[in-house]
Amino acid sequence: MASDTSAYRAAVQLNCDVQQYQWGKQGSSSQVAQLRANSSSFEVDESKPYAELWMGSHPKAPATVVADPDVPFIQYLEAHREACLGNAVAEQFDGKLPFLFKVLSIQKALSIQAHPTKDHAKVLHEAAPDKYPDPNHKPEMAIALTPFEAMCGFRPADEIAGFFENVEELKAVVGSDTCSAFSASRSEASLKECFSALMHCDDEVVHSNLAHLTQRLESMKSSDGTFSDDTESKCVASLLLRTHSQFPGDVGCFALYFLNVINLEPGQAIFLGPNIPHAYMAGDCVECMACSDNVVRAGLTPKFKDKKTLCSMLDYTMSPAQSRIFPWRGEDDAPQYHVYDPPVPEFSVILSSFAEGKHSLKPRNGPSILLVTQGRGTLQVESSAQPLSIVRGSVLFLSNSVSCSLSVDEPISIYQALCDAAGL
Fold it and tell me: Is the predicted pLDDT of residue 3 greater than 90, yes or no?
């Protein structure tokens, strides 16, 4: 009979939950499905979507401890709080793991959204706890596992003004005078007026102009079904048609003319701080975030849309797409580590790559969750006599300041989400 809590171990393997949201990739085309199936007896149904793998202690889908399957990971952390988290993290974050680690596999665009500041999150939660279920902020970072497409932040002013001039249907939903005022001033205040006008445009006007626009764009395709050149307008046209096929008549389709479209290669990242408009469009990524469910949405979703709140809170800074890519840095003494260290205390992510042979995994001053995305080997914790076998898809929790050695049989890649109390 299983005990209520599992005995403390410096490293434990986790069995993690899969979310089968309809926007996920189907069957084994999903990295979520591949990773989950490769590390356990999980069977993939090729007819079903596999959208997210949740790695952490979030009560919506907490992991379990592999060695004690009846013990939820959240219960394990509570039983061994100081040993697992370390005193500094336990005190700062009220004895809880402050981040949630995920893998996302996206076939259909996610909502246009932003996350509030911590102060604003408290206000939203107090006013509408049914829609904003906690008082925390939700900074997040996505790192591409495969080619990954997203919208993030507002385009440079010249690009937006160019679309106002050349896309009549966009001008019709925003308003000719509002577009002209922006083209003259190129100011953030004017951009706010334009985006707010778009989001609050009458549904019938949006529907009719999207219908006209999509018909016009279809007529511009060449005989092979593609656009004849690779200009930004044609790239947006192709993405707009795909997005409209997923969300017919949705005002969010027009947001493509306002927001940067970013195409990440594997290993590239975007960081989404407070009030940054964004939407994940397609591809697979690892994602790390502060533990919160606070999302303000306004398009490309059947869920609750809080257009007024979103338009009032957004950061209307205009910048090139390339500036939105979040850089990793190396560590002088350990070039095998790529460190993604955003300006928030809850989390960082490290990508570690090791060739065949014996290696040491650098200890960190706080708790961490490891995801193996490639390779095979064994992990040995200094304080344990029993090594852990790890393969692609393995997920492990490492307690505060644990020293480990790796024996690598096939070149291995490990994403490590952590809260480092001492800073990286």
Answer: no
DSSP state of 318: B
Question: In which residue are the tokens 């939820």 written?
Answer: 72
d(CA 264, CA 262): 6
The C-alpha atoms of residue 363 and residue 398 are separated, in whole angstroms, by: 9
Query: What is the rounded end-to-end Cα distance, in angstroms, of the chain?
Result: 42
Active-site annotation, residues = 297
Non-local (6+) Cβ contacts of 288 within 8 A are 99, 100, 101, 102, 140, 141, 347, 349, 417
Quick one: pLDDT band at residue 382, thresholds 50, 70, 90? confident
Residue 103's H or E segment, with its range, is strand 99-106
Q: Encoding tokens for residue 82?
A: 């100081």
- According to DSSP H, which parts of 62-142 are helical? 73-79, 81-85, 87-92, 118-127
Q: Name the amino acid, one letter, at 16.
A: C
CB 368 within 8 A of CB 397: yes
Rg, Å, the chain Cα set: 23
